[in-house]
Design goal:
Layout: H1 9-21, H2 27-30, E1 31-34, H3 36-51, E2 63-67, H4 95-102, E3 106-111, H5 145-152, E4 158-162, H6 169-175, E5 178-181, E6 202-206, H7 209-220, E7 234-239, H8 248-263, E8 268-272, H9 274-286, H10 289-300, H11 311-321, H12 325-345, E9 350-355, H13 370-382, H14 384-389, E10 394-398, E11 409-413, H15 419-434
Parallel strand pairs: 2-3, 2-4, 7-8, 7-9
Antiparallel strand pairs: 1-3, 4-6, 5-6, 5-10, 9-11, 10-11
Helix pairs in contact: 1-3, 7-15, 9-12, 10-11
């Protein structure tokens, strides 16, 4: 839908707030803060610009939610954590918030998230949990849980989340949305609560690749330009260990999706990421970046006690406290070598394909206890975190599934720095999957 064919921003904002307040939905669990008065002024200003033939770009008038780890001037950035509620308010907006406003985006509110963004199922012991829109008794995925529900439930058209180990792509996969993680450094993370200064990235969740691409350009501070076709695109199925413990429904949707790609003439062949996984396994034996770096971030904020932190989160922070400096340096060096090796083995037209997660959305009741939580959390993180550790752009698309079935995500992994190329190839995959 083009800007000229879309209802006015004011009308679409009315629809968004109606859905937020709909008692059949869970808007009260999705948002931590709403900016109704400001959003209405922004929508009216956008409508006036568009009527005058002076739009600011493709995000002008689009209804956007932002995850509650981005600074907004005058507000405390909670990042889903009770222990951060006493922090001083932010002095300025985060750069990505300023860029969204400058592009004419209508920011409807801040969305709920998991504690410190340090889990992938969407649960939070301190706040109400919005259920998966496809089954409210199931997990929405996280850590950008409220973000994805805001989009899938029509409370926002685009959501801005963060992705340190899959926190954009996992919820997108479990709820049937599109989620894009850029190469690190492409989008500024200043003004965002940091789970891992090494792995953090910021990106969009939307209902289409086109919306993700337009938002990515704004977040990255780039001029808008159409995605260029990639006729030499080469799609490699990442067979091997990343297919272990896969639900049969995930396998069926994935293989059927591959057949659709082949039918339209896309170049798809089998391959593997297993040699690169060996390097990452050696890294994991030393420690995990989020456990170490989150502990450092909390200490910088003056947080000296973890008594208010959920035990599921605390145990992982405490694990990082035992890593000595020499091992942290070893981790950085080993990761840099793994990133360089993977980049050298890729071209800008190469994309690896695999299921985003090996399982579909688990029941919330099944992840309430520690054992169930850690098992499911590890499973959904396993595939997406490869993109973070190897510093690649990566995107999750919904695969076609039978009516009434739970969503299944298709993950694309591109070459480091080739973000726009990956988005272009994702658009071709999206179009192929939409064909009967």
């Amino acid at each position: 839908m083009t800007a000229s064919s879309r209802p006015s921003a004011a009308a679409r904002l009315d629809q968004a707030f109606a859905r937020i307040r709909d008692p059949q939905l869970e808007g009260g669990k999705v948002f931590t803060t709403l900016y109704e008065a400001l959003a209405r002024r922004e929508a009216e200003a956008s409508d006036a610009r568009i009527a005058a033939g002076k739009p600011l770009g493709p995000l002008d008038g689009r209804i956007v939610s932002i995850k509650d780890l981005f600074d907004v001037a005058g507000e405390t950035t909670r990042a889903g954590a009770a222990v951060l509620r006493r922090q001083p308010p932010a002095a300025t907006d985060a750069p990505i918030v300023r860029r969204l406003r400058a592009a004419g985006a209508v920011i409807v509110g801040k969305t709920q998230m998991t504690e410190f963004a340090f889990s992938a199922l969407g649960t939070n012991a301190h706040d109400p949990v919005a259920g998966n829109p496809h089954d409210r008794g199931r997990a929405p995925g996280g850590s950008s849980s409220g973000a994805v529900v805001s989009v899938v439930d029509g409370m926002a058209e685009i959501a801005i989340g963060s992705d340190t180990g899959g926190s954009i792509r996992i919820p997108a996969a479990l709820t049937g949305a599109v989620g894009f993680k850029p190469t690190s450094g492409r989008v500024p993370t200043t003004g965002a609560f940091s789970l891992s200064s090494t792995l953090d990235t910021v990106g969009p969740i939307a209902v289409s690749v086109a919306d993700c691409a337009a938002t990515d350009a704004v977040l990255a501070g780039e001029a808008q330009s159409p995605l260029s076709p990639r006729p030499q695109a080469h799609f490699v199925v990442a067979r091997g260990r990343l297919f272990d413990a896969m639900e049969s429904e995930v396998v069926e949707a994935f293989e059927a999706g591959l057949e659709r790609l082949r039918r339209v003439g896309l170049n798809v062949e089998d391959g593997t990421l297993d040699p690169h996984l060996d390097a990452l396994a050696a890294l994991d034996k030393i420690g995990g970046f989020p456990s170490i770096e989150l502990g450092a971030a909390l200490r910088d904020l003056g947080v000296t006690s973890l008594d208010e932190v959920d035990s599921k989160t605390r145990v992982r922070i405490e694990a990082g406290a035992g890593i000595v400096g020499v091992d942290y340096v070893r981790m950085q060096r080993r990761r840099a070598a793994a990133v360089a090796a993977f980049e050298a083995a890729m071209t800008d037209d190469t994309v690896y394909l695999l299921p985003t997660t090996p399982i579909r959305a688990p029941l919330l009741a099944s992840v309430a206890d520690d054992a169930g939580f850690h098992h499911a959390n590890g499973l959904v993180l396993r595939n997406p975190r490869v993109g973070n550790l190897l510093d690649t752009p990566s995107l999750s698309l919904p695969l076609p599934v039978p009516a009434g079935a739970l969503p299944v995500g298709l993950m694309l992994i591109g070459r480091r720095g080739a973000d726009r190329a990956l988005l272009a190839m994702a658009a071709s995959v999206e179009a192929a999957l939409a064909r009967a």
